[in-house]
Amino acid sequence: MTDNRVYLFDSTLRDGAQTQGVDFGVADKIAISMALDAIGLDYIEGGWPGANPTDDAFFKDPPAFEKAGFVAFGMTRRPGRSAENDPGLSALLNSKADSICMVGKAWDFHVDVALGISQSENIDMIGESVAHCLTRKGEAMFDAEHFFDGYKSNRQFAMDCLKAAHGAGARWVVLCDTNGGTLPAEIERIVGEVCEEIPGTHVGIHCHNDTENAVANSLLAVKAGARQVQGTLNGLGERCGNANIVSLIPSLMLKTDFEIGVSDANLKQLTHISHLLDERLNRAPARNSAYVGESAFAHKGGLHVSAVEKDPRTYEHIDPALVGNQRHIVVSDQAGRSNILARLREIGINIDSGDAKVSALVEHVKAREYEGYAYDGAEASFELLAQRALGAVPEYFSLNRFRIMDDRRWNARNELVTESEATVTLEVSGQPKMEVANGNGPVNALDTALRKALVPVYPSLEDMHLVDFKVRILTPAAGTGAVTRVMIESADGEGRRWTTVGVSTNIIDASFNALHDGITWKLMQDGAAVPSGR
């Protein structure tokens, strides 16, 4: 470890989940955490074991990360209990996390009024909790809640809280600007003073964005000596959010001499992962987001366009391709050829950049996205789109027609029920197949009928199942006639998970398009062969 190395800690799955209107499911947590691990983050906080059923389910069977340490969040022991007999700590230690991050009070006001305990007991709670966690886990961290308010109120007490954790063996003591009210100059000064007493290689920063300074505060904390930075994707978080790790990563990599664990190649995935989160949340990406927004490198007609065409550095602080974004000349959009080539390489397709098929694929993607398709969150559909453009996707089956009927009625027990029935007519290698199936809703009925027809021919589809289903209205002004986008996440017995997308003015048609892609992708991965006609 060098003094120049900064460690990135993502708290999207906990802090981000506190955002108004955000409710992560287990499938969301798995997809987001695996994407974070893939770009090279050092720590991924999964949530709070024991706090809710979603976190319990996620911690029961967490993803296997290649690089990131998996962190469980919780509290120090409660007053009046020993660390060994505290149920909250037990939940943390019994989890499958690699590391534990515990929050505790660092503001004397909270200790005196909220907890109603002595300051010495609060300090003991911190040190004993850290020491106990290290008997079972390789790393323990201490989040000093309201540290900056506490430091300004009672410097000695706030520092004693940090020293108790550090002295007990905490890998990191994290200074939290919990209400987001501290300004950059204060952050830099206080972090610098802390690092005079505790090595900066053990000091972290956790900033909220209530004054729109969370990223600036985090960068100044690093400048002052802190070597761990906490943040969330797209700045998600309670109230005004947290430090946006999507902005912190390129700022540290491209604007400073500090080192982080993200490679140049993985930095190019930043725009993709930012948009992936928005797709999981079923919302449109913010166009003006720094580095990754659609407008971040957009130039309208006039002097700006002329200047950019002569020398992009005039109005672009970095090459947009470094973060996976692209320049937009509003009057004539510049297609993302380099982005398409990078995505092709990811799925194992190497093609010469001058190949005419690349240009055709770029234009096809642009046309599809204009219709409402989004491929940042639907990698399997993008792979199929690319493979089809290159002429390499077998036609495992073709749909002649489907019909869906919904029956809402009172049953024999005088209960109001709604039943769905789907009829599908397919061709498999020239042979017609028709099946009928009931389901819990029209999409389930359609999926069941498709499987009923296809599993006898393609047995590997037996273990494929739907994990998540999202619908987004793309043209809300059209009311009930709006264009809808359906995203379906599927999984199979091999542990694979993939997402596909469909778009239509008819939600069932959009669902079929996503289902068709999902089945096709699965069969291709399994190496299934199209049976010869009979």
Automatic annotation (TrEMBL):
GO MF entries: (R)-citramalate synthase activity; 2-isopropylmalate synthase activity
Protein's UniProt name: Citramalate synthase
Ranges for domain Pyruvate carboxyltransferase: 6-268
One Pfam short name: HCS_D2
Gene3D superfamilies assigned: 1.10.238.260, 3.30.160.270, Aldolase class I
Organism annotation: Denitrobaculum tricleocarpae
InterPro entries attached to this UniProt entry: 2-isopropylmalate_synth_dimer, AIPM/Hcit_synth_CS, Aldolase_TIM, Citramal_synthase, LeuA/HCS_post-cat, LeuA_allosteric_dom_sf, PYR_CT
Database matches in NCBIfam families: citramal_synth
Keywords: Amino-acid biosynthesis, Branched-chain amino acid biosynthesis, Isoleucine biosynthesis, Transferase
GO BP field: isoleucine biosynthetic process; L-leucine biosynthetic process
Entry's EC annotation: 2.3.3.21
Catalysed reaction equations from the record: pyruvate + acetyl-CoA + H2O = (3R)-citramalate + CoA + H(+)
Recorded metabolic or biological pathway in which this protein acts: Amino-acid biosynthesis; L-isoleucine biosynthesis; 2-oxobutanoate from pyruvate: step 1/3
Record keyword Transferase present: yes
Family indicated by similarity: Belongs to the alpha-IPM synthase/homocitrate synthase family.
Catalytic class of the enzyme: transferase
Superkingdom of origin organism: Bacteria
